[in-house]
Amino acid sequence: MSDSQMSFTLPEDHVALAALAEEIFTDQATTERVVEVERAEGGFDRRLWKLLADSGLLAACLPESAGGGDMGALGLVAIAEQQGRRVAPVPFWSVVAAGALPIAQFGSAALKDRLLERVLTGDALVTGAFDGLAGDIGVTGVLEGGDLVVDGAAVGVPAAAESEAVVVPVRLPDGASRVAVISTGADGVSLSATAATAQGSTATVHFAGVRVTAEDVLDGGGADVASWILQRARLTLCGVQLGTCAEGLATTAAYVSQREQFGRPISTNQAVAVRAADAHLDTEAIRLTTQRAAWLLDTGREQEAESAILVAKFWASRGGLRVVHATQHLHGGIGADIDYPIHRYFLWGRQAAFSLGGSDQLAAELGAVLESAPRIGAPA
């Protein structure tokens, strides 16, 4: 893909990456297996996770210097879309985009040596506490000597109970932020399980006077590390939502083409066709805006990507909700059956929308970005 002009088709290596992810998720995350994981294994498929590690998918999007495949943000989206298509219960976005990737980018040598290789081989999890975050950081810290002393709580952290450490943004008294990698077994850390809409493993992580050494604080060299992580976490979640909506819509199209009333398929009813068409347009809007934002990141256009990610987030959140509501409604009464597959897509669509944030939050963030952007024709 050119650095100067976006293509509407993925590069060949990303197509191959998506095909590998599709094969693994389709084979492993069957409806029966997903239900089994939700009901008997706490909402985290350890077997699938290890397979993703062995296939190289967990490392694919990390930089080559960290042992990765350097597939970038477009790679994150390509893998996440296939996860969403199968609603596979693994914490891909929180562990890879919000955990391993920032450690590879900003972590100290000691931190990388201790955690990164084991995360990429699937032998350890490090999850990010960035679910629903938008400037309102619930964890605070003060600097004491060379250490950071942390208090507060990170709510709704995916796979926290299974993770060895949590990557968490910390607000300092002066309003600045730091990002710390905190062991879940450290003194002062406790976890309480929380129920998630998508049925995955989720917990609130509590911090009470937790002392974090400098080697476990991500150093951005003046860059806003929390914002850097949040952008990539959100973008990967948009990819999950894309897959959820695309597969939910495909399932619905097949259903309304086969379901008959009064001797003809219900897909021939104008109201059904129009609503399905609207859902298709919303899904394609998620695809195009998400891929554009990923392309901007991969070509180094960080400033442009900031607003582009918020636009992608809008479509993934508001448009995604419209899609999953439409797919459930077009299934009629059976769509409300919690044991019927389409209901799981509805739950995942709502979970992604909640994690990405609501429309009021989005409007405030996007407005702040546009207000600070230089105006065309304005004096320097």
Question: What does it look like?
Answer:
- With about 375 residues, the chain is of the alpha+beta class.
- It has 3 domains: about 110 residues, Acyl-CoA dehydrogenase/oxidase, N-terminal domain (Butyryl-Coa Dehydrogenase, subunit A, domain 1), CATH 1.10.540.10; about 90 residues, Butyryl-CoA Dehydrogenase, subunit A, domain 2, CATH 2.40.110.10; about 150 residues, Butyryl-CoA Dehydrogenase, subunit A, domain 3.
- Helices cover about 55% and strands about 15% of the residues.
- The protein has a 4-stranded antiparallel sheet, with no helix packed on it. A 3-stranded mixed sheet has the order 1-4-5. Strands 8-9 form a two-stranded antiparallel sheet.
- α5 packs antiparallel against α7.
- The model has no long low-confidence stretch (mean pLDDT about 90).
